[in-house]
């Protein structure tokens, strides 16, 4: 009984983790499974102007909608862990430094990369910066994804141009955003008072 008492808080916390959507290729299914995600993303859109379809396409490409996503561990000699490829973490795979900049810029000091509402707000904020600093349209998923991956300065320098893998990845994100946008036009989304 004592062991169960000590495990209860751990089980409660573990039970709060949100699993990825059961059908991540369908925006309507995502919105119906997680209505709060849709309304969090709508709030981000109203605040920053980056469409929901673009926000979700970036998250799908970066983390497959996993709240605790991390980059792979690197190993020396094939078995000695030397750390992760980068500090990217959470739904949006935001780097430590960029996340710190977001918190400082927005004053959102309690934001968490593993919180969906914070992740979509971060993506909106980043899209607004990319629009302002590099002239990228907020609905241009291809260019936004490149700037998101390479940094706005890297995008402006064209650092992605010799990286066919990354450009193909950005094209895939763009196709996902097109599909999500088309699906969202015909969704029956639960009212925000429903959940």
Written account of the structure:
By secondary structure, the chain is mainly α. It has nine helices and two strands, in the order H-H-H-H-E-E-H-H-H-H-H. Strands 1-2 form a two-stranded antiparallel ribbon. Helix 3 runs parallel beside helix 6, helix 4 (52-63) crosses helix 9 (164-184) and helix 7 packs across helix 9. The longest helix is centred in the last third of the chain and has 21 residues, at 164-184. The two termini are 35 Å apart. Residues 1-15 have low confidence and may be disordered.
**Low-pLDDT segments, ≥5 res:** 1-15
Percent range of helical residues: 55-70%
Number of strands: 2
Largest sheet: spatial strand order: 1-2
The largest sheet is: 2 strands, antiparallel
**Multimeric organization:** single chain
Quickly count the helices.
9
């Amino acid at each position: 009984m004592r062991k169960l008492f000590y495990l209860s808080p751990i089980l409660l916390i573990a039970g709060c983790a949100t699993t990825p959507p059961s059908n991540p290729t369908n925006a309507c299914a995502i919105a119906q499974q997680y209505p709060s995600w849709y309304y969090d993303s709508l709030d981000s859109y109203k605040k920053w102007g980056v469409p929901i379809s673009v926000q979700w396409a970036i998250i799908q490409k970066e983390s497959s909608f996993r709240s605790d996503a991390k980059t792979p561990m690197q190993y020396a000699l094939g078995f000695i862990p030397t750390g992760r490829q980068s500090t990217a973490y959470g739904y949006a795979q935001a780097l430590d430094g960029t996340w710190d900049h977001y918190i400082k810029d927005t004053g959102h000091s309690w934001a968490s990369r593993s919180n969906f509402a914070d992740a979509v707000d971060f993506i909106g904020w980043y899209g607004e910066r990319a629009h302002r600093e590099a002239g990228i349209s907020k609905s241009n998923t291809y260019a936004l994804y490149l700037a998101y991956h390479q940094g706005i300065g890297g995008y402006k320098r064209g650092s992605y141009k010799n990286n066919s893998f990354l450009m193909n990845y950005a094209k895939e994100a763009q196709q996902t955003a097109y599909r999500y946008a088309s699906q969202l036009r015909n969704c029956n989304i639960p009212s925000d008072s429903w959940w």
